[in-house]
Amino acid sequence: DTEVTQTPKHLVMGMTNKKSLKCEQHMGHRAMYWYKQKAKKPPELMFVYSYEKLSINESVPSRFSPECPNSSLLNLHLHALQPEDSALYLCASSPTRTSGGGPAGDTQYFGPGTRLTVL
Amino acid sequence: QQQVKQSPQSLIVQKGGISIINCAYENTAFDYFPWYQQFPGKGPALLIAIRPDVSEKKEGRFTISFNKSAKQFSLHIMDSQPGDSATYFCAASRLGPGPASKLTFGTGTRLQVTL
Lengths: 119, 115
Fold this sequence. Notes:
Helix content of chain B: under 10%
Number of helices of chain A: 0
Shape of chain A: globular
Oligomer: heterodimer
Structural class of chain A: mainly beta
């Protein structure tokens, strides 16, 4: 099973709302990622978790708050977003190089994304 | 030095033709080069990948050619089909700060295969 699932598929929220995006994988991967993708652009890395610890934060505004409650789940908590935050939010997972995956740990598997619209 | 440059931005190929997309990188620390295919409204899906110790890798109709000295790699889609119409992203990976990898994406190529 090489599936990464994301919920919800679509989300519309106001600038004062608080919402969360969820991501789940059952491949035993110990690295999980959040990306933001605007139309006709490549995915932009936001956060990386390795072994449930935040290892990379690409200078993302604090209105985005990631959480990794266990090795299978990744959340992205959203608060006081701006209209320019509207985008496709992608979750990905991969083995890690240090878990015996070697360079195969580079293969990232993406979920279908959550289409977020901020009004 | 972190960029991956991709060309062309868009490509129109007739059914049965060969689609060629090129990428170039600067950072010699990159050691894994995947190609992703993305359909509208979907997440990117890994298509094929190569490491710098190999100059070519073929999987079905898809071939990656890799030139380490020129720091370039390309995707060739043989016998292109309308179902191949999608956006293709090249990427390059290196070990990040921590045990996970860090992908750098190219800017993407929108491929349209016409009948």
